[in-house]
Records
---
Amino acid sequence: MLAESYYLLRSQQDGQYVTARPRDPQERFLLLFRENFEARSYLNTHGEDMGDRFGVEAIGQTQLKALLNRWGFQGVGIVTDPLIPTVDFLTYF
């Protein structure tokens, strides 16, 4: 069985990932996209003047836990509609 991949937006200037803070400003949720074009669409819709400052990275599902631990994220936000945007938040324990 193939591992599912997700796509992330990462700053080319400082290496920070695009995150969401839905409730508490201290909580950070890593934004994940199911397709490369969805990540680009999100960036072009909500940050059109910043498109050249971010890159799209692919990450395998098996690598996600280590990334969450290393950066101290409380969970993930899976973007289901990049244009509105609609995000499903999942807390990581």
---
Amino acid sequence: MKRFWKVAVAAIMLGAAAPTPHTIVNDVAALRRLQSNSGMTLQWIGFETNQRGHVRVRTHNGVVTLTGSHRLPGTPEAVTMEGYVASIDARSFKFVGRIVIHDTPDIGRECVRDGTWTFKITGKRRYWRLQEMEMCDGLTDYVDIYL
């Protein structure tokens, strides 16, 4: 999120119109579930131990921001995310920001994703799953945020 604000300030200083993020809340109950989430996972990290990372959800001036990570203690393996929620519905939300997968499942792998991403609950699942799963190295990465 820091990067976004730096770009916005630079654009203002150069006289350009800076983008103004805001969150469209189409389902208040879904926003409450996201705010009280029970963590995040990437299937490559801690699968055997069922450990989850954390997701911090904040709201300020009509913008819902997400900052999260899931790390395997004692290793460089990690997934991080930082950005804001553009919109949220009963079973999905649009996330604008950066998702980084570092050193997993292979040491040296660095998968950086900048853009707009969809997280969706399907079937009877108790989590939102990143829908754009194949972005780097031909691998499928399951990034999940739990209710």
